[in-house]
Amino acid sequence: MSSTTHETEGNPLFPIILSLVAAAATGVLWAYANPIQLVPGVIQWRIFAFLPPLVGILLGPKSGFICGYLGTVLWSLLAGTFIPFHSLIVDGIMVGLTGFVPGLLFNPARDATDRKALIKIALVCAVVGLVMVVAVSASLAYLGIFPFWWAVGYLGLSDIVPMVLGTPLLLLPALKILKSAHAGGVSRF
Predict the structure, then answer these.
(1) Tens digit of pLDDT for each residue in 28-54?
(2) Stretch 183-189: mean pLDDT, rounded?
(3) From the CB of residue 83, how many other CB atoms can be counted at a distance below 10 Å?
(4) Which CATH number does 13-181 carry?
(5) Cβ(160)–Cβ(43) under 8 Å?
(6) Residue 15 in 3-state DSSP?
(7) Where does the chain cross the membrane (predicted)?
(8) Pick from 185, 170, 171, 90: which is nearest to 131 by CA?
(9) Which helix or strand (DSSP H or E) is residue 174 part of?
(10) Can you give the C-alpha Rg of the chain in angstroms?
(11) Residue 36, phi-psi category: left (phi > 0), alpha (psi -120 to 50), beta (remainder)
(12) Could you tell me the sign of the dihedral formed by the alpha carbons of 172, 155, 98, 93, in that order?
């Protein structure tokens, strides 16, 4: 099944505004809509961890970064886990990259979204997720919050699994919604 979208010179503010809305939704969903607690009160299974890579692919790498970075900062403020060094620098930037890298590598306007592409998207999400988890775990270990390998295990389950499964699974339906809302195509940011 092949699906592509047209990239046009549409309103350049649309992807920026939508990425800000997605960042707010990401932060709120991560704070309040994660029913499975891996470490109660601290690490929950982020069933919405697919949002930054999905936004990055649909709206562009910068939009994906905005969604991941601001979503992380908002989540940490709402969840009461905000640590300036960790949240603003390590966690924010690394989660932002989980939206940036897939958006940089995949563009539905030029790339087919067939089964092979969806598998590649899942693999990219796995690699960028692993890099993010290792960096965030190192930061948490450095700050004396969690042991490194303990954090890698729980954060890997929390973030990588939903990214690998959710991003390719929801890409085609999200493309259809975006196409129906903007038949002429969407500019990427």
Answers:
(1) 999 888 777 777 666 778 899 999 999
(2) 72
(3) 15
(4) 1.10.1760
(5) no
(6) helix
(7) 12-32, 38-59, 66-83, 89-106, 118-142, 148-172
(8) 90
(9) helix 161-181
(10) 16
(11) beta
(12) positive
